[in-house]
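Running low. Got one?
___
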Amino acid sequence: MVGSELQVPGDAGGAHLVLYDGVCGLCNRLLQFLLAHDRRAVFSFASLQSAIGQTMVARFGGNPQDLNSFYVLANYRTPRIKPFMKSRAAIFVARELGWPWRVLCVAAFLPTLALDSIYDFIARNRYRVFGRSEECLVPGPHVRGRFVE
């Protein structure tokens, strides 16, 4: 599937695709935060468990069964698609959200290894601290168009 074309509906939301763990309490809170603060609607969403999530993770060399990473695929509907993962994905999101969240981009000056170590610590403990649901979040009708199936 690495070379396959991605079929995304023309009415899908934003220019960037956020891939998240659909059963993770922390990830669902992040998703709710993004839906509330992404005023320009630049983000579309898909769970890592979905067909598109697994296809995109594999396309960029990741393990589709590993749900411990947060991915953002910038410009995912164009040939200029660029993947970000873990801490670099979080920094990309902060930059795209604008003020005041953009201030978090100062972390971009820190080494990726250090930032990803913090990310990995949180990822290892997220189910214990934030819980886990048995199914992915079902988006309401007012935001359903921002989810790629």
Remarks:
- The chain has a mean pLDDT of 83.
- The beta strands are 16-20, 43-47, 71-74, 82-85.
- Residues 16-132 form one domain.
